Amino acid sequence: MRIGHGYDLHRLEPPPPIGQGKPFVLGGIQIENKTGPVAHSDGDALLHAVTDAILGALGSPDIGQLFPDNDPKNESADSALFLHEAVRRMRAAEWEVGNIDCTVICEQPKIGPHRTKIAANIARLVDCPANLVNVKGKTHEKVDAVGEGRAIEVHVCALLKPRTST
């Protein structure tokens, strides 16, 4: 078995012309919100953290090394592309998902109403049963930038096991 931890944090701002926030996408699901991530790609902090967790379990370079934020081809890129590369590497190394546990920390939007859809989408993207992906929402209780609604933070642990089928 191999375990990896992924982490991401993005500043949140209103959309232009007031701020630089992009549409709020989490786990590949667009969610209505008054603020969105400031990011080079689409800013999906959850898919970034899932990608890094899988890459970490593999001992591979991280998302920033594979998809640098100063590369123009990554500008506004769909974060699912990054996750697809991690999954490609996972399969090539003969591993598969044992489970993925995600903690999303933000004041808004509330994660609860979206968690089932987000978990199902992540499961689809990594090609595993939906019951192997867990998504939890937490707040920072109004403390620091996350607690003030100015950022979103995500932690993900991915457990990989040897692949049983090809």
Essential attributes:
166 residues; alpha+beta; 60s Ribosomal Protein L30, Chain: A; five-stranded mixed sheet; two-stranded antiparallel sheet; 5 helices
Account of the 3D structure:
The chain has about 170 residues and is α+β, with helices and mostly antiparallel strands. The chain has a single domain (about 1-160), classed as 60s Ribosomal Protein L30, Chain: A (2-Layer Sandwich). It is built from 5 helices and 7 strands; from the N terminus they run ββββαααβαβαβ. The strands form 2 sheets. Strands 4-1-7-5-6 form a 5-stranded mixed beta sheet. Strands 2-3 form a two-stranded antiparallel sheet.
Oligomer: single chain
Rough shape?
Answer: globular
CATH superfamily: 2-C-methyl-D-erythritol 2,4-cyclodiphosphate synthase
The topology string of helices and strands comes to EEEEHHHEHEHE
CATH topology: 60s Ribosomal Protein L30, Chain: A
Distance between the termini: 18 Å
The CATH architecture classification is 2-Layer Sandwich
Strand order of the largest sheet: 4-1-7-5-6
State the low-pLDDT regions, or none.
Answer: none
At the first level of CATH, the class is Alpha Beta
Main sheet makeup: 5 strands, mixed
Give the class from helix and strand content and strand pairing. alpha+beta
**Share of residues in helices:** 25-40%
Gyration radius over CA: 15 Å
Strand content: 25-35%
Helical stretch count? 5
Average pLDDT works out at 97
Number of domains: 1
